[in-house]
Amino acid sequence: MKKIEAENIIHALTKEMNNFVHFATGYLKSDDNPQARRDFHELIVAKLKPETAFTAFKIWVVKSNPKLLKEFAEYLPQ
């Protein structure tokens, strides 16, 4: 039973982080598309809220990229 639970958690983590990295990459690549940049910005801010799943991993992604950290530092939970 624990193995199944662990697999489910790993699957959920992988899915959540893939989505978050997609948003972060989209944000970084959308310099020439202001609407897409705003959309990705909103998605990232929403995913950085403490009540979302795996927030600590998302914070690590933001902190590991200077451009993301500059843009989203104010949204990181304290």
Quick description:
With 78 residues, this protein is an all-alpha fold.
Question: What can you see in these coordinates?
Answer:
With 78 residues, this protein is mostly helical. It has one domain (2-75). Helices cover 74% and strands 0% of the residues. α1 runs antiparallel to α2 (34-47) and α1 packs parallel to α3. The chain is elongated, with a radius of gyration of 14 Å. The mean pLDDT is 96.
Work out the oligomeric state of the chains in this entry: single chain
Helix proportion of residues, in percent? Answer: over 70%
> How many strands, which pairing sense, and closed or not: the largest β-sheet?
none
Distance between the termini: 35 Å
Shape: elongated
Indicate the structural class.
Answer: mainly alpha
Number of domains: 1
Number of helices: 4
The percent range for strand residues is: under 5%
* Unreliable runs: none
Mean pLDDT: 96
Radius of gyration: 14 Å
How many strand segments? 0
The ordered string of helix (H) and strand (E) elements is HHHH
